[in-house]
Uroporphyrinogen decarboxylase
Amino acid sequence: MSANDRRPTGGPQSQTYDSTFLKACRREPVPHTPVWFMRQAGRSLPEYLKVREGIPMLESCMRPELVTEITLQPVRRHGVDAAIFFSDIVVPLKAIGIDLDIKPGVGPVIAEPIRTRADLARLRDLTPEDVTYVTEAIGMLTRELGSTPLIGFAGAPFTLASYLVEGGPSRNHEHTKALMYGDPQLWADLLDRLAEITGAFLKVQIEAGASAVQLFDSWVGALAPADYTRSVRPASAKVFDAVASYGVPRIHFGVGTGELLGLMGEAGADVVGVDWRVPMDEAARRVGPGKALQGNLDPAVLFSTPDAVMAKTDEVLDAAAGLEGHIFNLGHGVLPATDPDALTRLTEYVHTRTAR
Ligand code: CP3
């Protein structure tokens, strides 16, 4: 089933169905190009820093009222066309009992990395009871958001595996690749486990009211196409299949994935996210027909002058002008030192320039 097929008859998804964001995901005509920003909630906002004060990152993901407030902050401030659920890709792993923490300025750190067949047993199935705080937060959020869609998300099997096998953030993913090439069966079983967990986590979010989902394979750009096809795509496809019957748009994004865009689309996405290294028209050629694209202003451009930001935004919009469905976004997450006013101006600029 594709995302185009069904108008929901009730629940939060029926209220957001006619939003500009979801229309663009379905490649329908839109009154203006919709905008949201990866990492739009977070350290660029003073109101975020204020409510997060003294509360560790993982703990804040488990407090529904705080999650609701933080998720709404960028929607209120910038007038973006979609909210993204405030959480982290390692939350489902924490929920099934993996000992991990998110260290400020570092990222996720795993106490005992997963590298052997015996370690696999620690990756048990995720049930809705493990993440009741997610269901509760999404219920509160969708009531507040009304017709503004909420995007749920999860980390893709490769990116989650990279954190689990390395034990933390990694530049070269050497332990991950050692396992992938050295023990292909264990690797396949690990990715399959992660696909089960990720699929279950996305289902929880959609059942609770998310109107779209994004699967972040942030670090998969480290792989060559043949390795991606053989060792990663089956697991990512399993995640997309797990949520296909809901009919909500499925977005797939990774960094440095210019050579993988077509393959990532084939994994089962309705929308392919593009980083800033490939122009949108070229990305459309690589992805092929039948999918919307999301992207792709370099987040570092926002540190430049307003005129330069507008000029670079024009480049993105001009390259995307012929696409069937375009969702404007950055080519990766908002950098923490970004001036939030620059994001508000950018949102307004895209809306005005693309009004039709
Ligand atoms: O607004 C949003 O986009 C929603 C929130 C969100 C967070 N993490 C909150 C967060 C999302 C979508 C994520 C996904 C995520 N987490 C990814 C995929 C997206 C991407 O950027 O490629 C990845 C790779 C992670 C792992 C992770 N968690 C990293 C690399 C970091 C940053 C470490 C740092 O401090 O620089 C985190 C922590 C994290 N997740 C923060 C936020 C707001 C910063 C922690 C804080 O504010 O204290």
